[in-house]
Design a protein that fits this description.
By secondary structure, this protein is mostly helical. Strands 1-2 form a two-stranded antiparallel ribbon.
Length: about 525
């Protein structure tokens, strides 16, 4: 996580309930902050809409805007998140902090351009008012940039401010929505949806500004290598595709279900399935404990054994020492995975059993409850697919991690498509079977690798250092080169201006002195 591990280790040095609670809270903010905040805020907005009696068509329009912005912003940014996380980690490890801010600026330029281009292309020609299109485009762009910003904020470590940023944004959204539904701004049409979207935009904009200020005020220094991270697309291209296929797999079942018999179309713009989407979003809430537990355990317990093992392997440790360190590392890893699976399994099972009463109390549709029970199991396997991928990436086994990601995407897509037309009683089964299949493949790959970890560690090492080359290295070098030329031109221009100014001041000073001498001569 590019920086949270150092902070968690400091917190856990002092054993106390307060410190442990703080560590788990920080982990939750980093691993699920934007997603959790969005889910809670949007559901509060739906609650307000119910109170105010907003029409079903306008609710569907607002829901479609948020769902599309959320899903496709993740698909767009996830591959870059994997790449930039590795880049930040490497720079922090070698203490080259001056690369952090420039890479943030460079990546944000790319994400801004791509998200703007995609959003404009999507909304072009859609039968929506221009004011609503503008806000929808803005929503997609800013959510995309927040995903990237959160990767960098794990290096800042000011988690209290991160929490305040999300809380402040949520409160502003809630307050504005409540006020504007009573005294709405006068949009041309779809007034309620437009006012709700405006409220949401103001809230996430506040969150974004606070987070951006936090990052830029911390990393106020840097160099001019804004696009240096692009070279990682040549060296670590598999990371990009791991992020892409995992995220495509994450949302493949939702996208397919948008075109099922219970899918709807609103304003000839959005296809989505409220029943399935709501059930899946709620199911993903149940896996937050796993995300937090595993992040804490990996960064505090496993990492120390991992570091000791590779330290001995790299610094001429004896075979006995390496083997002992290997066994300890494997024991800690498998114990943590099993413990996390047991805890999450118990949590998921408890929530599934209590869902009848919880959903009845919350007045949630019984069809959503039935789909939720099934998709909660799929969410359980899904999060462990991600954990397996992360563990494989710890050991630099990127090709096998890519295989797990591709398997997840293929199986989830294939099985969801198979069950799509079998009726609502089968909704979610494709997701469960697909995630379980990918989980089995991932578990087999991980166990096989760990069984021969010493052999893999030594046999897979390169015989010589390869010179960095490839199209993306070329692009990065040229972008940075043109950036440097522009800066040099600007510097030359400024220096010429300063020299000219100095020269003019000198000439002026000489003229004044000459006139003074002439006046003195006349007096004499």
């Amino acid at each position: 996580m590019a920086g949270i591990g150092f902070e968690l280790k400091k917190i856990f040095k002092e054993e106390s309930f307060t410190n442990r609670s703080k560590a788990y809270l920080y982990s939750a903010l980093v691993s699920a902050g934007p997603w959790l905040s969005s889910v809670i805020t949007v559901n509060l907005l739906f609650f307000i809409m119910e109170i105010q009696g907003v029409s079903g068509q306008e609710k569907d329009l607002f829901s479609g805007t948020i769902v599309y912005s959320f899903v496709f912003s993740q698909i767009l940014t996830a591959p870059w998140q994997f790449i930039i996380t590795r880049y930040i980690s490497d720079k922090l490890y070698v203490k080259e902090y001056k690369y952090i801010r420039p890479s943030f600026i460079g990546l944000n330029k790319i994400i801004f351009f791509l998200s703007l281009l995609i959003a404009v292309a999507f909304y072009w020609g859609k039968p929506l008012p221009n004011s609503y299109k503008f806000m929808a485009i803005y929503t997609f762009v800013i959510i995309s940039m927040i995903w990237i910003l959160m990767v960098y904020l794990s290096a800042v470590k000011n988690y209290e401010l991160i929490a305040k940023a999300y809380i402040s944004g949520g409160l502003l959204t809630f307050a504005l929505a409540f006020y504007l539904l009573k005294k709405p701004l006068e949009f041309t049409t779809i007034i309620m949806s437009a006012n709700l979207l405006f409220s949401y935009l103001m809230g996430i904009s506040l969150t974004f500004v606070i987070l951006m200020y936090n990052f830029l005020s911390t990393f106020y220094f840097g160099n001019e290598m804004e696009y240096d991270f692009i070279r990682y697309l040549s060296k670590y291209s598999s990371l990009f595709f791991i992020g892409l296929f995992y995220t495509l797999g994450l949302w493949a079942d939702n996208i397919i279900m948008w075109f099922s018999e219970f899918g709807i179309e609103t304003f000839e713009t959005y296809h989505f399935s409220p029943l399935y989407d709501n059930a899946v979003f709620l199911a993903y809430l149940t896996i937050i404990p796993t995300m937090v537990l595993f992040l804490v355990s990996v960064e505090t317990d496993f990492y120390s054994y991992y570091k000791n093992y590779f330290g001995l392997a790299n610094k001429k440790g004896t075979f006995k020492e390496i083997k002992l360190a290997e066994n300890k590392m494997k024991d800690v890893l498998f114990n943590q995975l099993i413990y996390t699976f047991e805890v999450q399994g118990l949590i998921s099972l408890t929530i599934i059993l209590l869902s009848k009463y919880i959903f009845k109390f919350l007045n949630v549709n019984s069809l959503i409850r039935n789909i939720f029970r099934v998709t909660s199991i799929g969410a359980l396997f899904n999060i462990f697919i991600l954990l397996i991928i992360l563990v494989l990436l710890y050991f630099e086994i990127r090709k096998r991690a890519l295989l797990v990601s591709v398997s997840f995407f293929v199986f989830n897509t294939a099985f969801t498509w198979f069950f799509k037309d079998k009726g609502i009683s089968y909704y979610g089964y494709g997701f469960v079977v697909g995630t379980f299949s990918a989980f089995c493949i991932g578990a087999i790959i991980l166990f096989k690798f760990m069984k021969k970890i010493s052999y893999n560690t030594f046999a897979l090492q390169p015989l010589y250092i390869k010179k960095e080359q490839g199209i993306f290295v070329f692009i990065a070098d040229n972008l940075n080169f043109y950036k440097e030329i522009k800066l040099n031109k600007a510097t030359i221009f400024i220096n010429l201006f300063r020299k000219r100014k100095v020269k003019n001041n000198t000439l002026r000073s000489r003229r004044i002195k000459r006139k003074r001498r002439e006046r003195r001569k006349k007096k004499h």
